[in-house]
Amino acid sequence: MLVTHIPFARSQDGTPLVDALWARDLMGLRASAGPIRVAAPEYSDIAAMGTWGPGLVELRPESGIEFAGFAPVRSRRDLWKWPSIRAVLRREVEACDLVHTSNFFPPYLGLNYAHDLAVTLGKRTLFVIAEDFTDMLSWEWIRTAPTAFQRWRRERGLRKIDARVRRSAASAGLTFLHTPAAVERYRLAARNSVAIRQPGHETSDILSNTLLEQRLASLTSGRPLRIVCAARHSGLKGLDLLIDACALLQQRGIPVEADLYGQGPDTDALRARISARGLQGKVRLPGSIAPGPALYTALSAGDLFLMPHRTTDFGRAFFDAMAAALPVLAFRTPASTDTVYDGIDGFLSPLDDVQGLAERIGYLATDRETLARASRAARRRALENTRQTWYALRAAWTNNLLNEAI
C-alpha cells in the first residue's frame, strides 16, 4: 500500500484520474512490486487538482492499481480533517502487507502516521527520500522569506521535516534514496538503504547509433555549437547564468546557439535578459515540450545538454539527455558529481561561476573530438541505465523485503 500526498480525482464513471507523469511512476511501481493500493487525497473538482505534466490519464482496475481517497488538506485550517484521514490510513495499513511512504511536505507531514502505525503493527515498510528537499527548500522557501520572523518559522518547519525523515528512515525496513544528495545527507540515518537512479527512458527511446554518428559528423562543419535544455524556468535552474555565459562567448567570437525549452515564473525575465544581452536569435525559448518522444527528438537536435542547476535537487533531465546521446554540462554539486561522470559522459564546472561555465562551453565548442567521445559515452550509459533495468532491481529489493523475517 502506497501512501502519498499526490492527489487524484475520479471521472464520471468512477475511474481514477492522475497526473500522467505520476501514472507512469505508478505503473513502474506496479511492475516491480505487484498489485498496489494507493491512499491519496481525493479531489471532487478535477479542475482544482492541477498537474505538473502533460495532463491527466485514467488508471482503470485492470492496471493493477486501486485507490483509497481521503480529504485533501490545504493548510492548518484543515486540522479537523485529520481524524477521518487517520481512520482511512488505519484501515488501509491493517489490510496490507507492505506500507510504502515517502518524505512529506507540509501540510501533509501527518501522513507519516501510516509509517509509524505499520512499524507498530509489525508490517514491512518501504520509505523513499525522493530529493534533497533541505537544500531545495532552503533555496526556494527560506531564502525568500519576506521577514526575519517568517524566516525563523520556515527554518523551524524545515528542521521538523528533516527530523521526521530521519525518524522514518531509521525505522523503515528499506529506504530508497533517489538522489545523490539524499544519499550524502541520509545514508547514516537509515537503518537499511540503497541508492536509486531511475531514469525515465527505455531502450526504444535512445537515439540510434546511426543518427548519432550523422550528428557527430556535422560537428566538423564549423557550425555553431548547439546547446539545449529542458527545464522549468525558475531561479534554481540557473538559466540566467547560462544566458550570461553565452553572452561572454559571443563577445569572444565563439559561436553558440541555445534552445531553452520549458515555461515558468522566470520565462519573461529570461526573454528580457536575452534581449538585453543582444542574443536574439542565438538563445531561443521555444516553449514547453511534452515528455516522451517529442522531448527526446528535441534534445537529439543539440550537441550539449546544459542545465546549471544551483541546488542539490535532482531530476531525470540528465538521464533524458543521455538517452538523446547528449553529454551533460552542469554545475559541480553533490547531485551532479554522482550523476555525471566528469570528462567521460559529461562535464562539470564551478558552482554559480558564469566565467567558468563559459570557459567549459568554449572549450567544447573548439575541441569537438572530446565532445564526440562524450556523446558516444552518454549513449552507452543510457543503454545500461534504462527504466526497465531499475524496475527489475526494485522488484528484487522489494521481494527481499517481503520475504525477510521481521
Q: How would a crystallographer describe the biggest sheet? A: 6 strands, mixed
Strand percent estimate: 15-25%
CATH architecture of the largest domain: 3-Layer(aba) Sandwich
Number of domains: 2
| CATH-defined fold name of the largest domain | Rossmann fold
Distance between the termini: 18 Å
CATH superfamily of the largest domain: Glycogen Phosphorylase B
- Molecular shape: globular
Unreliably modeled segments: none
What would you report as the Rg, rounded to the nearest angstrom? Answer: 22 Å
Mean pLDDT: 92
Quick summary:
The protein has helices spanning 20-33, 46-49, 82-95, 113-120, 133-142, 148-171, 180-186, 209-218, 239-251, 267-276, 293-300, 317-323, 334-337, 354-366, 368-384, 387-403; strands at residues 2-3, 8-10, 16-19, 36-43, 56-58, 65-70, 98-102, 124-129, 174-177, 193-195, 225-230, 256-261, 283-284, 304-306, 328-331, 346-349. It is α/β, with parallel strands linked by helices and 406 residues long. It has two domains: 2-199 and 387-403, Rossmann fold, CATH 3.40.50.2000; 203-384, 3-Layer(aba) Sandwich (Rossmann fold).
3D structure, described in words:
With 406 residues, the chain is α/β, with parallel strands linked by helices. The chain has 2 domains: 2-199 and 387-403, Glycogen Phosphorylase B (Rossmann fold), CATH 3.40.50.2000; 203-384, Rossmann fold (3-Layer(aba) Sandwich). The chain is built from 16 helices and 16 strands. Strands 1, 2, 3, 4, 5 and 6 form a 6-stranded mixed beta sheet that branches. It has a 6-stranded parallel beta sheet with strand order 13-12-11-14-15-16, sandwiched between helices. It has a 4-stranded parallel beta sheet with strand order 7-8-9-10, with helices on both faces. Helix 7 links the parallel strand 9 (174-177) and strand 10. The chain is globular, with a radius of gyration of 22 Å.
